[in-house]
Write a structure and sequence with these properties.
Elements lengths: L1 H10 L1 H9 L6 H9 L1 H14 L13 H22 L19 H49 L4 E7 L11 E6 L5 E7 L8 E9 L2 E8 L5 E7 L9 E8 L10 E6 L4 E2 L2 H14 L1
Helix pairs in contact: 2-4, 2-6, 4-7, 5-6
């Protein structure tokens, strides 16, 4: 009976991941099991913690500071013009007979001030909308990443490969380490790394996949507080590669590894990931964000 319960827990793991994101259908058997299974309730909590990080990965949307200054300056300028139109004698010295100066009713200047203010606010709104659109795109990309992670976790052939510092650092310095998670026949993997130093903005970490004498890029990433996780996109199934390694490259990335190696992993010795390993991956993702 316990083995049957454990199998059911493993079977509904993909459903739990999708359910945490709001993408799962209402499955009555799964819901019934979740209501009485403390293990699956804990797993759902872990999934929700990772899913809850997605909105915070997008930068806050805010209008540019100089646009705010322009709006304030435009409002002040138009208010001053309206005040001048109402009481010109307080602001100017006599220059010509009143009969020769064009006259504008006060309502004209007030209306003009409101038009200028409306145009300035419209520009501010357009800038803010652009920032919001960018933020929405960031959240959508994070959502796609989470859905990719669900597919990865749902793959029955998911395996993990140990990643170690290369070369080993001097004694007393942090030791880079992590895991490379992949299914042999898939072309998307996940690298989770820890112990890597943060880089300046003009440098990135770049992943390389080795097949025979060829080395192809698997993407770039940055670390925060020594931790990072990133998807690795390969041109071929992961089983076609023998090694993965990471170098430090310029911010735009490189077409060929030119910077120092910092960590690597053989892709020939895999450990098949069980339910515990999949939960370990979720925990690593949460701690690395």
């Amino acid at each position: 009976m316990a083995a049957e319960q454990s199998n059911l827990c493993d079977d509904i793991q993909p459903w739990l991941a999708a359910y945490a994101l709001g993408d799962a259908e209402e499955g009555a058997p799964a819901r019934a099991h979740l209501a009485v299974c403390s293990r699956c309730q804990r797993d759902l909590h872990e999934y929700r913690l990772v899913a809850g990080l997605l909105p915070f990965s997008a930068p806050e949307a805010a209008p540019q500071p100089e646009l705010r200054d322009q709006v304030i300056a435009a409002v002040k300028r138009e208010v001053d013009q309206a005040a001048f139109a109402s009481h010109p004698a307080q602001f100017t010295t006599p220059a010509a007979p009143a009969a020769l100066r064009p006259k504008r009713p006060r309502s004209f200047w007030v209306a003009l001030a409101f038009v200028a203010l409306a145009l300035a606010l419209l520009g501010w709104n357009i800038s803010l909308q652009g920032a919001l659109n960018a933020q929405t795109a960031e959240v959508a990309e994070s959502r796609r990443d989470w859905q990719t992670m669900i597919v990865l976790l749902d793959d029955t052939e998911l395996a993990k490969y140990a990643v170690a510092a290369d070369p080993a650092p001097p004694a007393g310095q942090p030791v880079a380490h992590g895991h490379f998670w992949a299914s042999p026949q898939a072309q998307v993997a996940c690298l989770v790394a820890q112990g890597l130093p943060d880089l300046p903005t003009n440098r990135v970490y770049q992943i390389w996949l080795v097949r025979g004498n060829e080395q192809s890029s698997g993407g770039t990433f940055q670390v925060h507080g020594g931790k990072a996780w990133t998807f690795v996109h390969a041109d071929e199934p992961i089983s076609n590669y023998s090694e993965m390694f990471v170098t430090i490259e310029p911010s735009a990335g490189n077409t060929w590894p030119g910077g120092p190696r910092v960590m690597s992993s053989s892709l020939t010795n895999a450990t098949l990931a069980g339910a515990t390993d999949r939960q370990e991956l979720l925990g690593l993702l949460r701690r690395a964000d």
